[in-house]
Specification:
By secondary structure, this protein is an alpha/beta fold. It is built from ten helices and nine strands. The strands form two sheets. It has a seven-stranded mixed β-sheet, sandwiched between helices. A two-stranded antiparallel ribbon has the order 3-4. The longest helix has 61 residues.
């Protein structure tokens, strides 16, 4: 089933598209073909859906799941996603319903952020990893930096939801450039990025690039889609703020018009008073009063 890219092998629920599952199997086949046997490491496992094909694969010697098990986490789409009952115990129970004990014996779990995992505390260095934790660029890049020391120099690191964390992937590439580590990244349907490091960089180029999407087209489309999603999330708040500002502006306009009317009334009253007979006849008296005031003011 793995060799035939038969996605029905995914028996445990996984929040991936059908094309994502096919891409995962394609990468798994690639790793098997170039390495023979391999160790799989996954950051962010939730229910264990993407662990399943590796646990059941005879070519996979060990599986390491690293997950701090958050009940909620943010996302680049400006949303917060909830994961009720997110626990390693629940994942193991779910996987055990489908897998024999010898397959489950390959699984090691670490309830921690990968950045806190000290190299050597896991039993084996991995040759294939999937980063599928918090989908923010900051967290994803941190996961990559934390994963790198747990990998062998010649390895494959994949990213799920690459359309959301493309900036983190490009930052990871810059880090590898800085470290002088050869690498090659391809983007597979729908949202799987695959990075070959060391001697596997050219192998990724040769064997996975023919199945890949055009890099720049994918990145540009992903950015537009992300902006559109963020706009949709914030639209109600933006519309409410515009309505509030419109209401405030209407009230301010009414107050200005009221002041203008009061000013016009005051001017008309003053003009009427000045033009009145009483005002004119009292002019000599007011002149005398003004002179007296000025005298006392000295």
């Amino acid at each position: 089933m793995i060799e035939k890219l038969d996605i029905s092998i995914f028996k445990v629920k996984t929040e991936t598209t059908l094309s994502d599952r096919k891409s995962f199997l394609r990468v798994q086949n690639f790793v098997r073909s170039v390495l023979g046997r391999y160790v799989y490491l996954e950051v962010g496992s939730h229910l264990g859906g993407s662990l399943f094909p590796h646990l059941i694969d005879p070519a996979c010697e060990a599986v390491i799941s690293i997950d701090p098990r958050p009940l909620m986490q943010p996302d680049e789409r400006a949303q917060v996603f909830h994961y009720p009952e997110n626990s390693t115990a629940r994942m193991i129970a779910t996987l055990s319903d489908w897998l024999p004990p010898e397959a489950m014996a390959k699984l090691a779990t670490v309830d921690s952020d990968v950045s806190n995992v000290i190299p050597g505390t896991v039993k084996a260095s991995a040759t294939h990893a999937l980063i599928d934790g918090e989908h923010t660029n900051k967290a994803c890049f941190s996961d990559f930096v934390g994963t790198l020391p747990l990998m062998k120099s010649d390895c494959v690191i994949a990213f799920h939801d690459a359309n959301l964390i493309a900036d983190a992937i490009m930052n990871a590439e810059r880090l590898l450039d800085h470290l002088g580590i050869p690498h090659m990244t391809v983007f597979l349907p729908d949202t799987v990025a695959v990075m070959g490091l060391g001697s596997l960089a050219s192998a990724v180029q040769d064997q996975l690039q023919p199945h890949a999407l055009d890099r720049q087209t994918y990145l540009d489309r992903s950015q537009r889609q992300l902006w559109s999603q963020i706009t949709k999330v914030h639209s109600p708040a933006i519309e409410a703020e515009i309505a509030r500002m419109h209401s405030d502006n209407t009230k301010l306009t009414e107050e200005i018009n009221s002041l203008r009317q009061d000013n016009l009334h005051a001017r008309a009253h003053l003009a009427a008073m000045i033009s009145s007979t009483t005002w004119r006849t009292s002019a000599p008296i007011r002149a005398v009063v003004d002179r007296i005031k000025r005298r006392f003011a000295r």
